Amino acid sequence: MRLTNKTVIITGSGRGIGRAIALAMAKEDAKLVVNDVNQTAIDETVAMIKDLGGDAIGILADISDARQAQELAQKTLEAYGKIDVLVNNAGILRDAMLHKMTQEQWQNVIAINLNGVFNCSSVIGTIMRDQGSGNIINISSVVGLYGNVGQTNYAATKGAVISMMKTWAKELGRKGIRSNAIAPGFIGTDMVKGMPEHIINQIESSVPLGRLGKQEEVASVAVFLASDESSYINGEVIRVDGGLYT
Ligand code: NAD
Questions:
Q1: pTM of the full predicted structure?
Q2: Number of domains in the chain
Q3: Contact 38 CB / ligand 1 (< 6 Å)
Q4: Is 245 part of any domain?
Q5: Does residue 2 lie in a domain region?
Q6: pLDDT tens column, 189-221
Q7: Are strands 55-60 and 85-88 parallel, antiparallel or unpaired?
Q8: Is the separation of the CB atoms in 109 and 153 below 8 Å?
Q9: Is residue 90 within 6 Å of ligand 1 at its C-beta?
Q10: What distance in Å separates the CA atoms of residue 3 and residue 203, rounded to the nearest whole number?
Q11: Catalytic residue among 80, 146, 154, 232
């Protein structure tokens, strides 16, 4: 049990990678806060955690709204009294080539993938400063490191998440708070399964391991970063991409 007595907020954990992280952390005895904009999805994840014998509450909040991010933190403190780990996971895609990308596609991705991460980290990072301990895990993407066709908006936010994380590693490190990022490659969640089949086939053939990743393979890295096993890792980006960019 590597996360006993740790309270963890995971944004966007109603499904996909966030849900997989929640379930993996529940197995390590963490107390989970399942956040999403979809109440049905929240209820499903909370029920799955309870089926494992875990401890979880669900909090409906849109992290792109600073007030709702504040409420997410406040309700967590009311329920559990402290916040040990924040996993900035919620994110969306609105892909288009640069010459076709609309203001709406740009702004929607910025609102959730960038402003959402700032909203949660500023309020929860401040709580962690006061506690004198904490841990911020950011789900970036290999696209934030290397770019990708049709993803100007997404790449901008995922690169920015890494820059913010490195800044927090310096700013908050002295306060006993670690910040790191995971950069997944292509993981077989609903987000990726929504892509055309020929694109998925192309991706699979370009990955040295010859397949999409599993969400559990991202979750196990998040558990490691949340645990004391990674106690001297701060400001790091861990790629989970099957060797795609080796
Ligand atoms: P997903 O679409 O399956 O799940 C994302 C969840 O976030 C959904 O449940 C959604 O309702 C929630 N969400 C969306 N907007 C929100 C908001 N404003 N506030 C709170 N919750 C919100 O996506 P996923 O594939 O599980 O991706 C999770 C994270 O991993 C994202 O940040 C994504 O960019 C990143 N990522 C995914 C892949 C991949 O291949 N799937 C690769 C690299 C990075």
A1: 0.98
A2: 1
A3: yes
A4: no
A5: no
A6: 887 888 889 989 999 999 999 999 999 999 999
A7: unpaired
A8: yes
A9: yes
A10: 34
A11: 154
